[in-house]
Design a protein that fits this description.
Mean pLDDT: 81
Distance between the termini: 39 Å
Number of helices: 22
Low-confidence stretches: 204-215, 530-536, 591-609
Largest sheet: 7 strands, mixed
Strand content: 5-15%
Shape: globular
Helix content: 25-40%
Radius of gyration: 26 Å
Strand order of the largest sheet: 8-7-6-9-12-11-13
Number of strands: 15
């Protein structure tokens, strides 16, 4: 967040005006961590992360070993390097460093004297400069939803700060829970507590298994505890009007509560649209989506993708191809002027059925458009635009509602914690060598109020962690993998994998491909390189050589059937033995297409000495 708003740039300016102090005595000690070496490097180097720095850090692999207040500014630099490094590999590691850095900022802001000392010591280490260099590229979104404030309120994503009620703090409050914070919540207030109570499962002595995805199991109120060190989530507690404030505070035993926002029902939203309560200015996305509903086959799934930048040049070929497949309910979320212009021109000719205009470009927009149609009562199939449809998927998806599972076998599904496809609320892409290594390049989500609430919680979690890969977050909210920090998550929905021999991923990364027949394929996702807002070079660094130098868009959309088939069949792999499937709940690797080895000179050279 400090890189989106120019906080670090301001600190850099202040550090130069405050001047450099004498370094802390601990920063001159090389007996443990070689602080003098790191200080000289921070002051003189053009690049802070090189082999010598990584070798020094590898000598002290545990973050806690660095953070003993021996050399405060140096420790902040190390935590910054760790966050940069971990954000591309291990989210829990990055979150630990982020929490520690946030805490240092908070304690340094307690007084002007504390701030001046912190800024001065950090300036001596060039800390704000390196934080700009290392952290500004980590954000996978820029805290930008395309919704207006009115749309946020209509969808239950934001609530009015008016209409507060109060309750008295008592020792016995069975239907309330205090949520301790790792940092004081004063800078977030009721909005932060409301979001935490959205994610926190509700339980009491009578019903220890109720959770927020049950109709009668949601917290009704959220509030900030006295002292602003924690939040309260409450259900049925004695309420009263809040007393008149004395100055800017309430009594120590008084808790101010705000009502939790809730997911609206589709008929409520559609009635608001039909009554003319929405305008293009106040509700541009919702009103556009509501208008598009008349173009759909009743009750059918909506197929959604987003388009911007160079992808717009392939829209004509994409439209002709999907029209040939008789795919009807296709919506394109167009995120720049050129994509909108091209899409509208094609739409006037009959396909796609509708072009929904968006205003932002980032990882949140994928879920934004899915949430929009889900809230209007439609089941949604999301597919990244770098996917090629080989068949109309509607008959196959309809068959899953009534047929038994074909992938994986029932015994494997049970062992991996998967639901039958007919019972699943979400069907998602998976790796070829793991039935639960989930991906979010394409997925189907069934409409229900609990699905809406689950997706809102996912978006809220991602919004507050801009360094988190959206695919990692997606898997985390499906119950795959351990928690990465202290915040609770909602109960995972029932989900099942899409058969990778029917919905295939190109063999561009380890564990991907298919071993079935080309004629059985419905979708082929080929990875154009836009990977959760990370530049293509970063993606290519971990790609297999199978498709290097090949323009997949050109061949798939403009090549003949023979060329297309030859390209897809490069992803055929040997059949995977179910007994060798990897369980993503218990990872033995980084799990992000990154393969490490003990011969890596930077990661392990110091350990071999």
């Amino acid at each position: 967040m400090a890189t989106t708003w120019p906080v670090f740039a301001l600190l850099l300016l202040l550090s130069r005006r405050v001047g450099s102090p004498t370094p802390e005595s601990g920063c001159l000690d090389a007996s443990g961590v070689n602080w003098p070496f790191l200080l000289q490097h921070a002051q003189t180097a053009d690049v802070i992360i090189d082999q010598e720095v990584m070798r020094e850090m590898a000598r002290h692999s545990q973050l806690a070993g660095w953070l003993d207040d021996t050399c405060k500014a140096g420790e902040e630099l190390v935590a910054t390097i760790k966050m940069h490094w971990c954000s591309q590999t291990e989210l829990a590691c990055a979150s630990t460093s982020m929490v520690w850095l946030n805490w240092k900022i908070w304690i340094s802001a307690q007084s002007g004297e504390d701030m001046a000392s912190w800024v001065s010591q950090g300036g001596h280490w060039n800390l704000p400069f390196w934080q700009i260099q290392l952290l500004s590229g980590l954000s996978r979104h820029r805290f930008a939803l395309g919704y207006t404030q009115w749309e946020m309120e209509s969808l239950g994503l934001a609530g009015s700060e008016q209409g507060h009620v109060c309750t008295d703090l008592k020792a016995d409050m069975p239907e309330a829970r205090i949520v301790p914070a790792m940092l004081p919540v004063r800078s977030y207030g009721l909005e932060r507590c409301r979001s935490w109570c959205t994610e926190l499962p509700f339980s009491n002595k009578k019903n220890s298994h109720a959770s927020l995805d049950e109709e009668d199991g949601r917290w009704l109120y959220a509030g900030v505890m006295p002292g602003e060190e924690s939040c309260m989530c409450a259900r049925h507690v004695p309420l009263r009007d809040c007393p008149q404030r004395s100055g800017d505070t309430h009594a120590e035993d008084t808790i101010v509560l705000t009502k939790m926002t809730d997911a609206p029902r589709p008929d409520t939203l559609l009635h608001a649209w039909l009554r003319g309560e929405w305008s293009e200015a106040s509700h541009p996305i919702l009103s556009g989506a509501a208008e598009s509903l008349h173009t759909f086959n009743f009750g059918a799934t909506v197929f959604v993708s987003m388009v911007f930048g160079h992808m717009a040049s392939f829209l004509p070929a994409f439209s002709v191809h999907l029209e040939d497949l008789s795919m009807k309910n296709v919506i394109l979320y167009v995120l720049d002027d050129n994509a909108h212009k091209v899409c509208r021109k094609l739409s006037r000719s009959g396909f796609p059925r509708y072009c929904l205009r968006g205003s932002r470009q980032g990882t949140l927009q994928k879920y934004e458009v899915v949430l929009t149609y889900l809230s209007l009562g439609k089941s949604v199939f999301w597919f990244d635009f770098d996917s090629f449809w080989l068949q109309n998927p509607e008959p196959y998806l309809a068959s899953l509602e009534v047929s038994e599972r074909t992938f994986p076998p029932d015994d494997i599904a049970k062992a991996f914690g998967l639901s039958p496809a007919a019972d699943a609320d979400i069907l998602a892409a998976v790796d070829a060598d793991s039935p639960n290594q989930v991906m979010n390049a394409f997925f189907w989500i069934r409409y229900s109020l609990s699905s809406v609430q689950w997706l809102v919680a996912l978006m809220n979690w991602m919004y507050r962690r801009p360094h988190a890969h959206d695919q990692v977050a997606f898997g985390l909210f499906l119950g795959v993998g351990p928690l990465v920090d202290q915040e609770p998550l909602p109960r995972p929905p029932k989900w099942a994998p899409l058969d990778p021999n029917v919905f295939a991923n190109a063999a561009r990364f380890a564990g991907l491909g298919y071993w079935g027949q080309y004629e059985d394929l419905i979708l082929f996702h080929f990875f154009d390189g836009w990977n959760s807002n990370q530049p293509g070079d970063f993606v290519e660094a971990f790609a297999t050589p199978v498709y290097q130098g090949i323009d997949m868009f050109e061949t798939l959309y403009f090549g003949n059937e023979s060329a297309r088939r030859s390209l897809v069949e490069l992803s055929r792999i040997d059949p995977v033995d179910p007994n060798s499937y990897k369980d993503a709940r218990h990872a033995d690797s980084l799990g992000q297409g990154v393969v490490t080895s003990r011969s890596d000179p930077i990661l392990f050279a110091a350990n071999s000495e």
